[in-house]
Amino acid sequence: MKKEKNIINLGAIISISFILAFMYMLNRYTTYVADDFNNMFIDATRRISSISDIVETQILRYHDTNGRTVAHTIVQLQLLLFNKTQIEILNTIGFGIFIYLTYSMSRISDHIDSNSFIYKKELSSFILILLCFFMFWKFTPVFGQDFLWIIGTANYMWTSILVLLSLIIARRIAMKGGVKRNVFITFIGIILSFLSGWTNENSVPAFMFVLLYYIIKTKREKYDGFLDLILMFTSSLIGFVLMIFAPGNFVRLGAFPESPYFIPRMLNRFDKMFLYFKELLVVLTILAIIFLLLHRILNWRNNLEIEIFFLAGVGAYMAMIMSPTFPARAMISTVYYFIMVILLSLSYLREKNIYAFLIISLGMMIYSGIYFGQTYPDAIKANITYHKQYFGRESNILDKKKKGKLENIEVTALPAENKYMPAYKLGEVSKDKEFWINKSLDRYYGVKSIVLK
Fold first, then answer.
1. Which residues fall within 8 angstroms of residue 314, CB to CB, at 6 or more apart?
2. Which UniProt keywords apply (predicted)?
């Protein structure tokens, strides 16, 4: 008699609940930061108050700022439809979804015959999901910007969710040979791929590279779904073209003075990228290479999916050479591809030797968990302090406004030196009242000028 599948995975539920609890505490003490204020307005005077205002804003930005219409629509929808408390809850849930989708890209039980028992499945889910979270906590260069800052979550977390959902659909088609075609899932995959293609300049080439691998694999192995993957690839390419060739991208280039000569310009960008890599990503890269090699030694006849993930991560990083600026938050695509390499390698190891899997994965989870335990209290403390100072500064501005003082309102700077803060390494109020952040606060609070004390 065939055993019924256990639908509820208690290990996954426990680990995700743990993650949500800790992330909500961080989200609870975030504030509006930098570009968040700008995204509440259409222009210098009009505040966004309807969906049509968002459409108008995105059309304007497409022509004078950049082509990231999908990401900026997400953030403006958040700011329009939800209050701050609701955004905190929404972004906490979004982070849980992001972690679970990253983990899901490492699951192989749907793609190969598994000899693991249910308890092993639940235990491995618990370990891998927590390890996934701890690795993002440790290796994300500017964690607060990617996962706590409101516009940062829209640009990097929520857009990554779109990419991962698209990849999961494509992987289901390519890796689960002979799966019955589902027209509805294919339609969703095409829509998601189009949106994914219109997300970020560096994440899309990596996404399309993985899609191309799945297309080739499906064609060679004569699986159903080859046409579906072609349609997904094409829709993502259309989204990418719409983003890259936005007139606003060419306007924005003028804001970053560089050498007019191609080779010196590229060399200067490469030099900055190398320094960034050495400072922020070298340890994670070495770990990914070690696990890639371990997997290939143990499964030398297996498909090339792990290598493709690794190359996609490298490609996501190198694609930024085409941009005049490389904010550390844009490295998140490389981070999640490298983490998927590690998790997928561990999943295959589990199928080979459950005891080796437990020793290695538990060891990594405990080690990274200790780091989390050491750094999380400081992260909470830093965010609580910033939160208190932020509202203290706001009370001062509103009090001066109430008394009729609308010009040259002096405020103190808000330090943000912990990478688990949304304001970490972002701009702050200046002594120059014409500085863009000063002007953003002027508009938000309805005063003439705010200056740094």
1. 334
2. Membrane, Transmembrane, Transmembrane helix
